[in-house]
Amino acid sequence: MFPTLFPYGIRGFEDPERETPLSFEHQAQYYLNLSDHTFRYHHSYLFIKSNFNLITCELTQVLPAVLETLAGKLECEHKVSQLTPQEKDALALLQQVNTISAHIPGLHVSKIYVCNEIPAHSPVFQVMYGDHSVDLSQHFPKLIFFEFMWHACFQHLLGWDFRAEHSSEKGGIFGWMDAFYGSSEYTE
Q1: Which of 6, 43, 87, 91 is the most interior residue, by most CB within 10 Å?
Q2: In whole angstroms, what is the distance from residue 11 CA to residue 65 CA?
């Protein structure tokens, strides 16, 4: 749940291998009382600790049958107005859980949240999808420099001859290359 606080993936909350069971609340309070300030200054730890009891109480009161029918209706893309009051409450609770989870680095929901935020800030993405008001001229120098740098690295370090499209006679730091492929990722 907190990869920066428990980097080895052990001794996290409700550890099943722990000899003496320890509740989330007691363990969370213990970590806050440590002389190490890591837990007190963590960006989402306090938020999760303060909301955990409230959400777990509400979550345990939702019947599995309600969640199952809600999942079926959402899968068939029913309108929210067609949901029963219990299903609406369950949906609101699930949205709250997702909202909280989106702020915990490393969780699947937070990765989805970040991926959904990228298009809004990516000028290349905006142009690809028809927004012609975006000026890409400020990005061209960066792209030209990037192109120059990776060509220089491949040519001088790895020994790739771009004109001949094969490894140079001298080779590179890893010997002679038969081919290479690359993938890119847009980051700002």
Answers
A1: 87
A2: 34
